[in-house]
Amino acid sequence: MSIDVMCTEQSFNKPTLQALSEAGGRIHLPKDLTKSPSFRFDTAEQLHRFDELRKAYEKNAGQGALG
């Protein structure tokens, strides 16, 4: 069973997408395109890792570390 996390248009930024990729998550597009996409993880560990990476990357981006 997978874990879906709601995302918004603001979620599609470099720090978040980099963390998503490194944590092993993916973007899930529902068959009903009137529904919003979500970030999908196979395990709770992937979700936890994504959250840690996202926070670190957003902090670094705020300090100008990510280009």
Give a concise summary.
The chain is of the alpha+beta class and 67 residues long. 43% of the residues lie in helices and 16% in strands. It has one domain.
What does this structure look like?
The chain is α+β, with helices and mostly antiparallel strands. It has one domain (3-62). The protein contains two helices and three strands; from the N terminus they run βαββα. The chain has helices spanning 14-23, 44-62, and strands spanning 3-6, 26-28, 38-41. A three-stranded antiparallel beta sheet has the order 1-3-2. The chain starts with a strand and ends in a 5-residue tail after the last helix.
Please list the strands of the largest sheet in the order they lie side by side: 1-3-2
Q: Order of SSEs, N→C?
A: EHEEH
Runs in which pLDDT lies below 50 for 5 or more consecutive residues are: none
Average pLDDT = 91
- Principal-axis shape equals flat
Percentage of residues in strands: 15-25%
